[in-house]
From TrEMBL, chain A:
The keyword Transport applies. This is ABC transporter ATP-binding protein. Keywords: ATP-binding, Nucleotide-binding, Transport. Residues 1-23 are annotated as: Disordered. It comes from Phytoactinopolyspora alkaliphila. Residues 27-284, 403-647 form the ABC transporter domain. The lineage of its organism: Bacteria, Bacillati, Actinomycetota, Actinomycetes, Jiangellales. PANTHER family: D,D-DIPEPTIDE TRANSPORT ATP-BINDING PROTEIN DDPF-RELATED, TRANSPORT ATP-BINDING PROTEIN. Belongs to the ABC transporter superfamily. One of its GO terms (biological process) is peptide transport.
TrEMBL record, chain B:
InterPro entries: BPD_transp_1_N, MetI-like, MetI-like_sf. The chain crosses the membrane at residues 9-29, 102-125, 137-161, 195-214, 248-275, 295-321. The keyword Transmembrane helix applies. It comes from Phytoactinopolyspora alkaliphila. It is a multi-pass membrane protein. GO terms for cellular component: plasma membrane. This is ABC transporter permease.
Amino acid sequence: MHAIPTQAPSVMPAGGSTRRQDDEPLLRIDGLRTHFFTNEGVVKAVDGMDLTVPRGKTICVVGESGCGKSITARSVLQLVDRPGRIVGGEVRWRPGTGPATDLARLDPAGEEIRRIRGGEIGMVFQEPMASLSPMYTVGDQLAETLRLHQGLTREQAREKGIDLLRWVGLPRPERIFDSYSFQMSGGMCQRVVIAIALSCDPALLIADEPTTALDVTTQARIIELLKNLQDQNGMAIVFITHDLGVVAEIADDVTVMYLGKVAEHGSVDEIFSNPKHPYTQSLLRSIPTMRSSSGAGRGRLTAIRGMVPHPQNRPSGCPFHTRCDSAIPGTCESTEPPLIQFGGEGHRALCHLYDQSGELRDTSPKPPVMSVATVEEPQAKRPSPRADAPILDVQGLTMHFPVKSGLLQRTRGYVRAVDAVDLKINAGETLGLVGESGCGKTTLGRCIARILTPTAGQIHYRGTDGESVDLAGLRSRDLQRYRRQIRVIFQDPHSSLNPRMTLGQIIGEPLRANRIAEGSEREDRVAEMLSRVGLRPEYIRRYPHAFSGGERQRINIARALITEPRLVIADEAVSALDVSVRAQILNLLVDLQAEFDLTYLFVSHDLSVVEHISDRVTVMYLGKVVESAATADLYRQPHHPYAETLMRAVPVPDPRLRGSRNLPDVPDDVLDPANPPPGCPFHTRCPHRRDNHCDDEVPQLRSTGPNRHTACHYAESLTLRGVS
Amino acid sequence: MLGYIARRVLVMIPTLFVISVLSFAIIQLPPGDYLTTVVAQLEVEGGEVDSAQLAALRERYGLGESFFVQYYAWISNIVFHLDFGHSFEWNRPVSGLLGDRLALTVALSICTILFIWLVAFPIGVYSALRQRSIGDYAFTMIGFIGLAVPNFMIALVLMWVGLRYFGQSPGGIVSPEYAGAAWNLGKLLDVLGHLWVPVVVWGTAGTAGLIRILRNNLLDELRKPYVVAARARGLPERRLTVKYPLRVALNPFFSTIGWILASLIGADAIVSRVLNLDTTGPLLLRALMAQDMYLAGSLILISAVLVVIGTLISDLLLGWLDPRVRLRYGQ
């Protein structure tokens, strides 16, 4: 990491290293129950949670959304909003050598808990930008904490605040101190939030999905930062995440949560190499792993059936039995599972499948799968893509947005969101489009779908009759007939569906708008489509709010496919979903591709998902294509340093490989497509930059191998590392 | 910030120009022109039509010329000499007619805004922080009654209450004994004794609206992640609420200045009639009915200008309050 001193600044008193190690852990949660008293009844979000955090260790809490991870974290600091309340259990907090305090008994608005919040326990949240108030400078909010807990004067707080900002690796901390959150990138904001959380040298940091909203490169650097800071001040970390790659990267111990309770707990090695609970096993199996498995082709991910039930409808017995493949009939659905201790130190699970000695009982109908990386054979064989007939041939596509400023709002420059991009998509293939946020991948997708009218360039689309049309030049009336052939699946399953329309109206809308089908025929087709995407046809009269994120994404997919399109642009279609649901949706997309002979343009920032689903991958940086290659080739050995940077930043879900990736030392600066650097756009962050050639000459996209194109001056002479 | 102010002020110029053209167009709408009206009036009164006087008027207002020449004659008199033309109905210069009434109207407007703020602020904050409490419901109900009952009705009720229980007649703005007197403490107290009635009448509706806006804004803000983050830093609840969500929720207080200023100029003619107040409202109503074009045009122009000025004040206050407004424009 850049600019991080090897020692904490002298103002930071040394933390846990001097603290006495004894039996009582730093934090012990015992039987915590946090319930929400709503008009519809009591929601038991957390119901009997146990968690032990030893001093100086990192505990990861994992599970799907709706399992009560965040509520557990908030309960520790009494931050649960009404109508939620802690109704039982203990939260024993013992930062020093004295007696432990039960935080669950403290008054949520009282003096005592306020001293602990920010003073003894720091907290970091998921949305870095939103957790800073835009009305005050970040320095004001940082100094506020210091003055509150340490009684510093304004000047002392400023001085120490600037030291802290430098400590968390922010360049020019004096300037950052006086900046507002909306003037900074997400990564910079998260560093500020971490500086605030650690400002009073807490013994514990609670980080609630701190990297989920960040780019993969930024995520890697924030995790690196947290590890460095922990080495320096000896704090313990409770790290809440749904990303098992991150868990493998940072955890000492892992607690898997399901429906407000612990399902399994163990060391990171035990959880990854010897998971016991079927839920843990299914979670691990549902991650697409980047292993550059070129020979295997595209397999199906093993998803967990269904989804997390609402806590109000908690199943009796073992809460997981409704989704468990190994459930024992007559036992799992009626009796609470026993706590089983396994050989290792503290490895335990709540499951009926094991007897008290930790051995697998022979009553289970189907033993749980132990190994992690099993991939089922693809169900449907789909025809291999036809390379000779591109369905889409994009040439020199350019989309510039004017930047206006000054008194008269004159155009001062252009955001080159997409800058002279060439792209070919063959019929029947899946082209992955990756890059960090701000690289223009979404804009490119929207230009192709002609949601935007590009500034320049051609989009040649080959219709069913073999005729090629340039979509870029068509007016909206002429575009009408292509709108049903090229469809988009949008990212956010919550805001892309009109809450006032029923599923029948939402999915049938394209049929109505294009006058394809009317009345009962339309209804029949919608019902048919619903069952194709795995929803019940009876849902046709329901409204979207009745559905979960994964189901809404199925609705989105149904709306995209109802017109029998040929090309589907999936814009971050699975990014907002949990791992298990993501696996279900990816499988669905693969099945539908075979069934309807679809061509996909799959836009995503998630490299493992792109690797799983794509035949070829195109990498974009600052509006330009920097590399384009067959998936296996690219992941085995990228030719462009940016592709390498992206790949090395992805956390690998295997704790044994921890520390094996050496991250390039690049700053969190915002990509600014209005001011791309001269020469190669990536040269400011490139670890392989050589001489001045990179600084002043723009590299052209050129062939660097069979079916590979790279925009790098030194593509041939570099040996870059892909995913091992 | 300076760039932001300069930009807001510069944007006003074309806006004001368009407004003045539209106001003048309205004056021109009735058939005939000012002179035909004057001639008709003089003939009715049996007076003699003095052709020299007519020529002078023709010269002054550019009558018979094209629209833009006439417009220029009208607007340049206003801008350079504050001469708004002549009201033929009152047979007096418009500026003389407006002076006192405008001052009273603006004074009443400012008092009303202050009243609205003073009442709406604590109630809005209370209703948000104690959402769904009995107090919240009670204030909500009173607010809706205030919105639903017509203003003139409230005015009548208040007058009746004043007369019946306090033995004073709250109509008008000064008691007859002070009418011609110079300003002194007695007169000031007397004016204040009358002022509260129109302020309360006009304030009720605005207060009810603002309470709802403040309550909903604050409720939204209270759920934002930065509030939880501030709480997780150990901030005391009261300080946290005032410093973070409340400051954002204040936006509507400033953004409504623009409309309130303007709406009082013309819209409340009925209340002014009922309360016997010499505001501009009844004047505008009468001018429109009598086709008193220069008077009507001037009032329309002035109220439009007040909207623009009110909006400018709102914008500047918002820029001061909210760094996002200030800095995004300043870039």
